Amino acid sequence: MKGFFVTGIGTDIGKTVASAVLVEALKGDYWKPVQSGNQDFTDADFVREFTIHHQTIHPEEYLFKAPVSPHLAAELECKYIDIQNFMIPKSNNYLIVEGAGGVMAPLNNKYLIKDLIIKFQLPVILISMNYLGSINHTILTNNALNESGIKTAGIIFNGTANPDNERFILNYTGLKLIGNIPKADIMSKGFIVQQAKAIRGKLMETIASYPDHSDNDNQLQVDYESF
Length: 227
Hints:
The protein is of the alpha/beta class. About 35% of the residues lie in helices and about 20% in strands. Helix 5 links the parallel strand 7 and strand 8. The chain is globular and about 45 Å long.
């Protein structure tokens, strides 16, 4: 399976926007295994709405009403998230899998999002956002991934830039910078396409470092100048 697992340093830091950009850049599939809240316009709906070159948007394995941690959302509906139920969708395209919350967000009383990443064996693209405390949160997240033996392909900074913070994080962690996604004044397909074009070069370099990912490079010729 060729793809990436998108996780973040916490909630509301732009994982879905980053996922949409990655899907657009790779002309790929998208899958969010667990969605809590926003049932009227899910993260899958967002990716479908704001990308042009998406392929298949796979349905969630679990979809809950309450906008809370997956384990609690499931409990509120008298359900249980069984990690054995998760199977990566079959696809010939690159697949972007978006996690819920951060890597330590609980799925149930035993398993966390990081355990789902381990099960899928996909390299991670970490999403960070600059705010007071984000250096700490980013390094802690990176350490948690490293300690679990999870490969981190690179990092994307989302939102308002802070070069000093970003420079420190990159130097300290050694993570590869895939790109910076600015805050959109108005969200649109044009914005997502523009950001996909901006990160595509470094994303292709990242893919080249994973031999099993590079087979489909010839399928990724996108004429962004026409949009």
